[in-house]
Amino acid sequence: MSFEELGNAFWQWLEKNGSTLSDGIKFHDYRDSEGAGRGVIATRDLQEDEVLFTIPRPLLLSSQTSRLRQEKDMAEILDKMSGWNPLILCLMYESQRSDSFWKPYFDVLPKDFSTPMFWDKQELNALEGTDIVEKIGKEEAEAMFFQEIQPILKDHPEIFNSDVHNVDLFHQCGSLIMSYSFHDEKATPKMTQKNDDNGNDDGEDGENEDEDQEEGLLAMVPMADMLNHKTGYNNARLFHEPNCLRMKAIKFIKAGDQIYNTYGDLCNADLLRKYGFADENNSFDLVEINGGQVVELCCDDTDASLRDRKIEFLMEEEALDDCFVIDTEYILPPELISTLHVLRASAEEFEKMESKQKLPKPKLTPTIAKLGMQILEERLKRYPQEDDNQTLMQTKCNRNKRHALLVRIGEKKILEETINKLKKEAEGQKRSAEGGQDNKDHINKKKKKN
Ligand SMILES: C[S@@+](CC[C@H](N)C(=O)[O-])C[C@H]1O[C@@H](n2cnc3c(N)ncnc32)[C@H](O)[C@@H]1O
């Protein structure tokens, strides 16, 4: 079946099973124009609050609705599993069954993904300098497959086939959850899985703290996941109602416009890591500054025991963390400024802070601004010394490299703009200090004359 025929079959399946689909929307092929696969387009003007579609809850694919639950022992096994694992197992099972209720849905879901987890070494090189590389977590995910999923598959050869239900299928299903799943907020309490014992839903790559702290039942929501995302263009939202999930326009949408859901206020690094694309201009971009490196840079001449006391104090006062975040406001976060004051304080000054158990005020003095600049300049050195904008314009630049460059360009811009702002601020302070001194000299001269 062609791309269009698969879309039509899925549309008919939705209607046949109780979904309502507005006559003002249809699927659209955004593969060539935007490299964004299938999306949804407005076929006429749509008003704010207009319902675009509704999906009855039984159409959601979760560990509660999958037929895997009816297989011997499986309900108990699924209920004991945590994080993404129950849904991964259900997707591995359902996606390979030609008689699955969700077959027309699986037929429109991708089998290949453009997230960095599937990039080759050369493509990964394009991410040099960004924080994505350490967060991909492919090895951790595989370790989890071999420890937790594979034993279940092996114990149940009557349900699973090790040639089919293998680690590749596991990655495919994990990636689907990463980029297509929702937390159904209004699932009944019985249906709602709490996060796992250690309070952290591991996710496939063990790095999905933000989305996984959400409560509700992790589920695939056919149709709601056909909407693309573009930062700043969000015009539709999914509402979780008692009997169904309802997608509504949240503003007027012109005929011919694409309908965009929001995947969250995500920086390009997170968009790329979770969804396999980055936006041209992303106002949610940010840069992480490693806390350990800040300490290293500021304390290279500090006595080790004093340095350790400072670290302990800063952590107790919740100023020093694994990383500090700088966003598109281009300012040093107050916790970083206070941390720099503490790290640069003399032993006597620090003792006073310690005895008062109080962090210094986050005042940006010229010394701290200079130190801030040094830290950001060090961070900038992590990126390859290339003109990323120039490379981006080259026609040969492949898709993955393009998206990696968008991440790098966004992060470098934040660092450069913040350095410029700090420079201006330090110069301004120096000038006003000199101005203040001039005024004092002038007054003194006048006094002497009189
Ligand atoms: C929830 S699905 C949306 C439907 C998807 N386009 C499809 O064809 O099945 C999320 C995936 O859509 C693609 N996508 C969404 N927004 C995009 C964008 N602005 N640019 C490129 N790809 C996008 C990415 O592959 C992402 O992982």
TrEMBL record:
GO BP, sorted A to Z: methylation
Ranges of residues in domain SET: 23-264
Compositional bias of kind Basic and acidic residues: 424-442
UniProt cross-references to Pfam families, sorted A to Z: Rubis-subs-bind, SET
Single GO term (MF): protein-lysine N-methyltransferase activity
Chief site of localization: nucleus
UniProt cross-references to InterPro entries, sorted A to Z: N-lys_methylase_SETD6, Rubisco_LSMT_subst-bd, Rubisco_LSMT_subst-bd_sf, SET_dom, SET_dom_sf, SETD3_SETD6_MTase, SETD6_SET
Region (Disordered): 189-214, 424-450
One GO cellular component term noted in the UniProt record for this chain: nucleus
Keyword S-adenosyl-L-methionine: yes
Highest taxon listed in the record's lineage: Eukaryota
Record protein name field: Ribosomal lysine N-methyltransferase 4
